[in-house]
Amino acid sequence: MKLRHALALALASASLPAHATNWFQLQNTEPPKAPVYRFFGFVQPTYTRISGDNVTGLAAPLAKFNNHTALFNFVPPMNDSTSAFQFLRARLGVRGAINPHINYFLLGEAGKNGVTTKNDVVATDAFVTFNYIPGARIRVGQGRLPIGDEAMQPAFIDSEYINFSAATLGLMNEIPTASYPAGAKTTSGAGLTNARTTGGAFAYRDLGVEVFDWFPHGKWEYAYAVMASTGTGLYSLGSDYGRGDISGRLQASYIFGGKGLKRNDVTGYVWYETGKRHFGGTNYTRTRYGVGARYLKGKLRVSGEYLWGEGMIFTGIAPPFQPVAGPGPTPTYQVALADNNKAQGGYLEGGYYVLPKLEFDLRYDYYDRLTNDAPNERIFKTWTLGAQYHFKPNLKMQFNYAIRTLGVPNPAAGAAGANAVKIANSMGNLAAVQLTWMF
Predict the structure, then answer these.
(1) pTM of the entire structure?
(2) At 21, is the pLDDT very low, low, confident or very high (cuts 50, 70, 90)?
């Protein structure tokens, strides 16, 4: 099998303009006459550098963090340096067709990212798809949820940017949490609860059963997916966090031409996800939904999506610093548990091929976290300038420069509000270079 054909079958082609395609088909099923197995994988060595000043002028109880760097100016997931070279993703998988009606997909992650913070190697995908029932293909196992476009696109093939938008990352890349030990020296803002993480990020995946299919109709194609899942992401065994989810997506595409990864089209979609999460002896409702569209024709790509979230809003570490000795709070994760907590945001982006192998990209993304809670509301805004150069079908280089701001729209009177503004104003810009090599 030629390299180009093998890479395409493994969802690993990057030689064409960004793809607007049917991810239900290409990720969950195998093409006709597919082999019983074929190995595939990719690595993404990445260099990241973040600017930003140390925070100064903090008053009690945060005075001990003066002249320290806020966590958002460190390179994740290690959070110990403002610049780092790392293998952001390193994945190896195998997929194939057991017979014309049954196929499977296995993929593991060994890179340094939010997925592997608790375990060095994590199984991200492990599912079998049964293609017996017309109009209702059935996928069983662990795989991507049928939600927004950024979350559904494979990172090694269709991601035009090195980092996800803030709204997708904050609302959809769930991190499991549990109660923080009683008596710990921490302080949480009103409406927020101290927490500890019990696993790495879910990477937009869960364990369950998905029913899906697509229906061509002339130039049009309609697709759907509905999934019942555990709500425990990549950490289902022994987890008490998720209590069950239902998610679904509907989409319609007008196809200009081409097929598979080479398809040019315009697609509109809506999606919804809801379920329960167990925290501190109580079940809380977590709901997410969104709407979006994507256009690709020739050299031009334009896409956008808007997301909403209610309940279980993860707000990260507060105060956002590494632990420091002395009087004052100990930094800890925090989460807004109640159903009335809300967040929203989205992105608008585009790309254009100025040369056959060189593409320029531009994205604006916005995330308004805790819109219902004035003291704790934070607004993240980012402009990302990008360029991609495709050397070969299996090799590309990306450069991103992200201009980042963090707003405190309702600073409280006194030290708490002043401290929040000083911390937010220290957020710096981010520059990153990434090589993607697929094999």
Answers:
(1) 0.92
(2) confident
